[in-house]
Amino acid sequence: xxxxxxxxxxxxxxxxxxxxxxxxxxxxxxxxxxxxxxxxxxxxxxxxxxxxxxxxxxxxxxxxxxxxxxxxxxxxxxxxxxxxxxxxxxxxxxxxxxxxxxxxxxxxxxxxxxxxxxxxxxxxxxxxxxxxxxxxxx
Length: 138
What we know:
By secondary structure, the protein is mostly helical. It has helices at residues 2-15, 44-65, 74-87, 89-92, 96-103, 107-114, 118-123, 125-136, and strands spanning 18-23, 29-32, 35-36. It has a 3-stranded antiparallel β-sheet with strand order 1-2-3, with no helix packed on it. A hairpin with a 5-residue loop joins strand 1 and strand 2 (29-32). Helix 2 (44-65) crosses helix 3 (74-87) and helix 6 (107-114) packs antiparallel against helix 8. The longest helix has 22 residues, at 44-65.
């Protein structure tokens, strides 16, 4: 066991650690301690842990970007988190009318405005309708 751990430490030392994907000298997408992304496998449990961590971080970013979000109804907050998770904060920020309507608690209008987008028409029509429906019931 000790010998095994020495080997692990040596590999870690030589490979170096990267928390983000980078190109190794051979041009492969790599992460962690030199693991090729192409061969990386993840269990459903690990993926769920990543998702939970990501959602926690997103909530902090959303709250600091949109002051109104924190005091919104839970369903509204959840819809915003899901939209930001899918498209990113900068893309969500372009939904200016929807954001204004959510901020001013005009939920029926916000739900209709959400559907007036490329996101709703072509990218994720079913998801958009479902999330819009949740907002319309606020």
